[in-house]
From TrEMBL:
It comes from the Eukaryota. It holds the Pfam family FBA_2. InterPro entries: F-box_Sdz-33, She-1-like. Residues 203-249 form the Sdz-33 F-box domain. It comes from Caenorhabditis briggsae. This is Sdz-33 F-box domain-containing protein.
Length: 348
């Protein structure tokens, strides 16, 4: 490093350290460190009386107070009546008619500001994320969220999932039920959940190890993009899915499907009854090198085939079979050039 670069870095560090915001943050860290040392760390937190706890809460920011409040009813009661300093509140117009944005700043020049939008038109939120497994349903004031289009859940309780899905429209763009913090969800959710219109009719569906699919359940789904990490989707069920597509019985606008299982798949069963299969040999890969390169980035290419439609053989899907993973993509689309049909291959 040159002397000029070193001097520039030193000047930058001095400028940062001279920033009032930096000074406040350092004082807060120092104060919290002294408090934690004095009380012997938070392992002794239950031994403190309420007055001592209030002194600690005085030094917590809004986010930390929220985290502490959800640990117990007593903490919630303690924090809910404890005043919090708000540096500024701003009301600004937004592009949505009859709506206003409220911006809250807890400290001057804070890195993070909290924004809340209010609208006379009602709820305008597009995405719902739920990971709270002990949500107080009986005390909730939520009636309906008409504008929600995406739902992400980390739950394994039938009642909670049904309750939240009853608050959103039936025509979701996306629904995901995935593990929380990479811990597997228990396989305890009933198959009745698959009959809910919010799941059956959503355009993009991702479910991780939660349901036991019964015969016919997969074929009822209307999703254009499907990702299922589920043990109980059988080879026979997936085979019927492929046969249906070849016979023209598929969801309009279908893009892709991914099925994962820890069990080895039986290729003989998966391809039974499928006609005019085109193998991805070296010549096919070379002629379609662009799509082959994309496919290799998205999955482990092993046994890869092209399945043409019986309605129009220039339309086709790509199916790649690994030992445990099956990837299906709507890649082949019928096109015309100078009055003649041909297939254009593109990854969806």
């Amino acid at each position: 490093m040159s002397r000029e670069e070193s001097n520039s870095d030193d000047e930058h560090q001095l400028a940062v350290k001279a920033d009032p915001k930096y000074i406040r943050e350092q004082k807060l860290k120092e104060s919290l460190s002294k408090v934690a040392k004095y009380i012997g760390g938070f392992k002794l937190w239950p031994l403190l009386n309420d007055d001592c706890k209030r002194m600690v809460i005085d030094n917590l920011d809004y986010k930390m107070r929220c985290r502490l409040a959800i640990t117990s009813k007593k903490h919630y009661a303690l924090i809910s009546v404890h005043p919090i300093h708000i540096h500024s509140i701003a009301f600004t117009d937004v592009s949505i008619p009859k709506s206003v944005m409220v911006v809250i700043e807890f400290e001057k020049d804070a890195n993070q500001k909290y924004e809340i939008m209010f609208s006379e038109a009602g709820n305008i939120w597009k995405t719902l994320r739920v990971a709270m497994r002990k949500y107080p349903l009986e005390k909730s004031r939520i009636k309906f969220l008409p504008n929600v289009k995406q739902v992400f859940m980390s739950l394994n309780d039938d009642n909670l999932i049904k309750w939240w899905l009853s608050k959103v429209p039936k025509d979701l763009d996306e629904f995901q039920l995935i593990p929380r913090d990479c811990s597997p969800i228990l396989s305890s959710i009933s198959t009745e959940m698959l009959t809910l219109p919010q799941i059956v009719c959503c355009k993009k569906l991702c479910i991780y190890e939660c349901y036991k699919f019964l015969n016919g359940d997969l074929l009822k789904l209307q999703a254009r993009r499907i990702s299922l990490n589920i043990q109980h989707v059988s080879d026979t069920e997936i085979n019927q899915f492929l046969i249906n597509w070849q016979n023209g019985k598929y969801v309009d606008g279908f893009k892709e499907a991914c099925f994962f299982s820890t069990k080895r798949r039986d290729l003989r069963i998966l391809l039974s009854g499928i006609e005019n299969i085109i193998m991805w040999d070296d010549d096919f890969k070379e002629e379609n090198s662009e799509i082959y390169a994309i496919l290799k980035r998205r999955c482990f290419v092993k046994t890869c085939i092209q399945i043409p439609s019986k309605l129009n053989s220039f339309n086709s899907i790509t199916a790649n079979f690994d030992n445990h993973m099956i990837n299906i993509f709507a890649t082949g689309k019928a096109m015309k050039r100078d009055g003649k049909q041909y297939t254009r291959y593109r990854m969806p």
